[in-house]
Automatic annotation (TrEMBL):
Annotated gene: rfaH
The organism's taxonomic lineage, starting at the top: Bacteria, Pseudomonadati, Pseudomonadota, Gammaproteobacteria, Pseudomonadales
Functional note: Enhances distal genes transcription elongation in a specialized subset of operons that encode extracytoplasmic components.
The NusG-like N-terminal domain, residue ranges: 5-103
Keywords (A to Z) from UniProt: DNA-binding, Transcription, Transcription antitermination, Transcription regulation
Listed name of the protein: Transcription antitermination protein RfaH
Top-level lineage group: Bacteria
């Protein structure tokens, strides 16, 4: 399919089946976008990098006016096209472009290693460097921060840190 032709639409997927819906739609020849986010989670007691949908339960699909939209309703994992009233609502192509650019920037960021130096990018300790100690649940980290001439353990959101260069 030509990248400049057609409009993007939002599909609502069945619960926890957005990956399955994407796979089935791609197999049928549709162009889909399911933005993902790589994050660290504790799975079975071990910290692992997992890839999750940025918008769980939804994915974007490019459709031309001449495309047969009928098979969408019977595709496994697909619930419905999102819209108002009778028609599907097209998505601004600028949003799709931004999602693709952010996905390219986020690729390849490695998992945090204990003892590694990180930079805090948000919150009251923004722009300070600290040492990664451990995960604290799914979305927080424990850092060792040299603050007021003492080593202090602080807990910050995982999204509030970045790897130091």
């Amino acid at each position: 399919m030509d990248r400049e032709a057609g409009c993007w639409y939002l599909i609502q997927c069945k619960v926890r089946q957005d990956e399955r819906a994407e796979e089935n739609l791609v197999r049928q020849g549709y162009e889909c976008l399911r933005p993902t986010l790589a994050c660290e989670r504790v799975v079975r007691g071990k910290r692992q990098r997992v890839v999750e949908s940025l918008f769980p339960g939804y994915l974007f699909i490019r459709l031309d006016a001449g495309d047969n939209w009928g098979p969408l309703r019977s595709t496994r994992g697909v619930l419905r096209l999102v819209g108002f009233g009778e028609g599907a609502l097209p998505i601004d192509p600028g949003i799709i472009l931004q999602l693709r650019q952010r996905a390219e920037q986020a690729e390849g960021s490695p998992v945090l290693v204990v003892g590694e130096t990180v930079r805090i990018i948000s919150g009251p300790f923004a722009e300070l460097e600290a040492i990664f100690c451990a995960m604290d649940g799914d979305d927080r980290v424990v850092l060792l921060l040299n603050f007021l001439q003492r080593k202090q353990r602080v807990r910050v959101p995982l999204r509030g840190i970045a790897k130091s260069n």
